[in-house]
Amino acid sequence: MGIIVQKFGGTSVFPKERLLSAAQKVVKAKREGNDPVVVVSAPGRKGDPYATDTLIRNVQEIDPQIPVDKRELDLVMTCGEIIGIVWMAQAIKAVGGYKTIALTGGQAGIYTDQQFGNARIVRIDPTPVEEALKAGFIPVVAGFQGVTEHGHGVGHGQITTLGRGGSDTTAGALAAALNAQSCIIYTDVDGVLTADPRLVGAKARLLPSVTYEEVSEMAHLGARVVHPRCVEIAMNHRIPVWVRNAEGDREGTVIKERASDLPTRMFRITGITHLPQVAQVKVSVAEQEDLAEVETEIYRLLGEAGMVPYFVSKSRSFFEFAVVRHHLELLRSLLDGLTLPISANGHLRAYILTTDPDRVIHRERRRLLQRSQRDWVLLDAPIEITTNCAIVSLVTLNTREVPGIMARILEAMVDSEVDILQVADAQHSVSCLIREEDMVTAVRVLHEHFRLDDENTQQLQPIP
Ligand code: ADP
Ligand code: MG
After folding, report:
1. Contact (CB, 8 A) for 230 and 183
2. pTM for the full model?
3. Which of 50, 148, 181, 298 has its CB 3.0 to 4.6 Å from that of 2, i.e. a possible disulfide?
4. Among the four given CATH numbers 3.40.50.300, 1.10.150.320, 3.40.1160.10, 3.30.390.50, the one describing domain 3-188
């Protein structure tokens, strides 16, 4: 018996009946002799009064023309979890009569960097939670938040949020800092499934046991059932993670093996994931020999702005990549109209990057540049953006060991007339960039084609 971190998602603590039944799980763990440490998300789902989206919208609606300060957005966003912990602390008292203490992220010793909206945990001081446990309290910690430890400008102790799905990260990181015996993620589905049941319905099958690597890959590629950081922290500290339904008493999914722990030369098709709202970007240059320099500069700029390109690929005269659509505006503001001088081979060439060469501002910029730099050769580097894309991936254990996977994916997609714009493979996945309108079809077709609705598919297979 030891410390168990129990994390409850928003739908698991709202409305009241769910809150009480979640509290029952905590009480049960305590009665069985464990030391539960509870992590709670903001109560409810999109549209509910204390859900994170509602809290943000309420502020934005005051005057949509005035952007909300990032620091203040974090202040308001963390209120949902703070309400959640007080409710949960009260519910545990009501259901089991135990002493509880509700702690904000900062009060629980969770320190982050200063990146408001998407902060990273830099350190956890386990003392406050450990002392609460020692004094006989059940600590109830607000997920998704922390405080800055060392600040400049606005100073230390600023309240930060950890980004979407951040309560899972809180749970994983707390479990690691407390050296917990396990971390249980309670949610609104039975565990990690072969695909999102919202897309494939009852055909989605439960994965009773799956490696950290497979789940982390699924999470990175869009399965939001558990956050990838949670799984990765748990993997590094060898803490078993369970994903379970907050309703009922089913076992759910256990994640406690590493791919490298398994017998060698084994293989499995794990599931299908989807990531909507992606954009494809293509940049062309007139002179082949300049491609590498233009490409390097652009990827450097993206990196500095914190954007991660997917599906990086190139041909002789252009290169392509994809970004999440929510970065598109930033990408446009960085690249559209940018002038890139090329130093190679003694030429004086400059590329003007543009999404629309005919725009007046663009023509004017070109005229002025040409006037001031007569020796330059000015060339257009057109940027083409396909806005409505999605990534659909086949997640596996050891893709690269198994011949023929690519052919099977292409076969399924061609049969269902889904156009593949780009493909990328990795150790535990093959991903296809497709049009967003084809996303649901692609997920269903791949799920069917790889027989993921058949439980035998989930068994590890020897590599042929
Ligand atoms: P919580 O509020 O509990 O954190 P989330 O909405 O973040 O819940 O995550 C649970 C949801 O993840 C499920 O309702 C399901 O629609 C979705 N999901 C996506 N992919 C998967 C998958 N492979 N297995 C299980 N659930 C998935
Ligand atoms: Mg979640």
Report:
1. yes
2. 0.93
3. 181
4. 3.40.1160.10
